[in-house]
Design goal:
Blueprint lengths: L1 E4 L8 E4 L2 H11 L28 H15 L8 H14 L4 H8 L4 H5 L7 H23 L1
Antiparallel strand pairs: 1-2
Length: about 150
């Protein structure tokens, strides 16, 4: 239940978890092209060459489909790209309290400092810290009222 990302960002290979629901979606998608080598083959202009394609779908095609989906949702922000999903993935993992070393491995970062950039993207840690500090201070306030 892992996906092998071959030559992803930074030309690095990595493995990331494949949620079961995504496997079901990928199997459904595969039925449309049945390529024995590629999950996302270049379909060609007729969209009928998927089963025999030798090259993967072009990044421009992926960006175009992503842009269309973004527009259908009504999101107006312009600078949202496929790469934004990578940042969102890392941020959601952090918010779910996944160990930062695991996130580092999933993103293929050689240096932990690179992964730690995502720490500033999440407010959850700051909210948690505020709540912890606030709860600690409530104990002092209770003691003072009893004096």
């Amino acid at each position: 239940m892992m996906i092998h990302v071959h030559r992803g960002k930074g030309a690095k290979d990595r493995y990331v978890p494949l949620p079961h629901e995504n496997l079901i979606l990928l199997r459904r998608y595969w039925v449309t092209h049945q390529n024995p080598l590629l999950i996302f083959p270049a379909l060609g202009r007729s969209s009928k060459t998927g089963s025999s394609a030798k090259t993967p779908m072009a990044i421009d095609s992926v960006q175009g489909v992503f842009r269309q989906a973004r527009n259908k949702t009504g999101v107006k922000k312009r600078r949202i790209t496929i790469h934004t999903l990578r940042h969102s993935y890392a941020t959601h993992l952090l918010e779910a309290e996944v160990n930062i070393r695991v996130i580092q491995r999933y993103l293929g970062h050689a240096n932990l400092e690179t992964t730690m950039i995502y720490l500033h993207l999440t407010q959850k840690g700051q909210e948690d810290a505020y709540e912890i500090i606030d709860n600690l201070m409530k104990r002092f306030n209770v003691k003072e009222q009893n004096c």
